[in-house]
Amino acid sequence: MKITIVCDVLGAENNGTTVAAMNLIRSLREKNHDVTVVCPDEERKGESGYVAVEPINFGILNNYVKSNGVCIARPDDDSLEKAISGSDVVHLVTPFFLAAHALKIAQSMGIPVTASFHCQAENLTNHLRVMNSRIANRKTYKVFYDTIYSRCTAVHYPTEFIREVFEESVGHKTNAYVISNGVSKRFVRRSVEKPQDMKDKIVILFTGRYSREKSHSVLINAVLASRYSDKIQLIFAGAGPLEQKLRKQAEKLPVFPEFKFFSREEMLDVLNYSDLYVHPAEIEIEAIACLEAITCGLVPVISDSPRSATRFFAMSERNLFRCNDPTSLAERIDWWIEHPAEKEECRREYEGFAKQFDQDICMDMMERMLKEAAATRVCAHE
After folding, report:
1. Backbone phi, then psi, for 259, in 5-degree steps?
2. pTM
3. Rounded CA gap, 367 and 352, in Å?
4. Which of 105, 95, 93, 102 is nearest to 143 (CA)?
């Protein structure tokens, strides 16, 4: 197939959406599909298979957008028309400006369009300080539905949770394909020694963008309340706009956390020398990072937030804590530290859990969705 993938946001693989997009792109190319990617990534200019468009100029907000580690594409109809022309199917990664223009152009050419659901309403309303407003979030979903998802041949949701949230919010069903973004086979349990400066520490890992909805501060306060605070080494793997604020808050901890964006290879080591994985995020569509941790043998402690799909990865109440409650999280952390035998038993229970999220299988399912969408064009012309 000739497939055009439209990415309003791409760039470095420092967020879940970009990682998911690149995994799909690589998988489709490995299957010998002709894939053209339209994105605002300047580093892709001139690279075969990519059409780089200009980013949106947000004026005085440019630094704020950059601090989020993203670059958002400005619609470029000429580039889109050239990329889309002759395609069997067009796939939209996020429901923003470039995607909206691509959808309109593709439909004018009679080309089917599919779209992934990688953006919760709260990921946007968070920046407007109305993350907890049901009205603002519903209106955001209504805009997504009206401009993108209601007009697509098929919609990809990484979890059943986000499909239910979205369809309930807009009051309409979509042609839904629930497919995990998948865990790479590279993430396996292996023996890795802790760095020298962490040899005598209990290493607790959280992977997530430094933003309000990921709730890093809850974990910082939980460690402060822990009976083992002087022995806990926190690792915050990621990047984002709240880094300086979180660093300031973390100064009160006996052991200062490590704040760092790790490469995928580096993450394999970190996951395998850590002692516990905590996912305090209040807002989450899937959290592949948590699945990667589980696959590498880490026992997870997850927020029970009703706005997070990650809570469904918990195998027992011991793997959950009350959302935004540092005291509840501290109790869970201390219990797992004090019960190593039970932690090992839980680790064994999780063995094989992530097989259902095998990335190769998930990418095969994504390919099938695109093929089925492309086939509708043939039917329309019979």
Report:
1. -105, 120
2. 0.90
3. 24
4. 95
